[in-house]
Design a protein that fits this description.
174 residues, mainly alpha, 8 helices, Rod shape-determining protein MreD
Amino acid sequence: MIRFALPFFVFLLFLMEGTLFQIFVPPSPDREFYLVPRFVLIAVVLTSIYRGAASGVLIGAGFGLLYDVVYTDIIGIYMFSMGFTAYISAFTYRSVRMSFVWPILIIISAIFVLEWMTYGLHYIIGGTDLLFEEFFMLRALPSLIMNGTAALLLIHPFRRLFTRIREMEELQHR
C-alpha cells in the first residue's frame, strides 16, 4: 500500500496545478508575467534526490507523459524533459540529502532547466516565437520565484513521506 503513496501524492499535486492554482491565481490580461506552477516537478526532483535516479526518472517520465496528453499537442516534450531533469538532479550524496539548502537549489535549477528545455523545443519546432529575453523575464523568473516558495513548503512533507516509505521497505525485507 505504501508504494502507491508517492504516485498518489504526485497526482494530487498534478491536479492542484491544473485546478486549484488556476482558481486562486487566475490568468489575467492585466498582468505582464505568467506564473506556471511546477509542483509535480518539485516532487519528481525530491524523488530523484531521496529515492534515486531510477525512481525519479520513472515518476518524471510518467507524469511528463500525463502533461503531454493533458496540456500539449506534441507527445514527448514534457516526458523527455521531466525524465531528463529527474536524471540530472539525482544526487545521492548524504550531505545533499541532509541539507535543507541543497535540495532547494537543485529544485530551482531543475525548474529552470525544464522551462528552458521546453521553451527551446517549442522554439525549434515553431510552437512559439517568443524571444528568450521575453521568455525569461515574463515566464521563467516569476515562475522560479513562485516554485521556489512552493519547494520550501513541500520539502518537509516529502522528506517525511520518503522516510516512512524507507521504514516500510525495511520492515518488509525483515
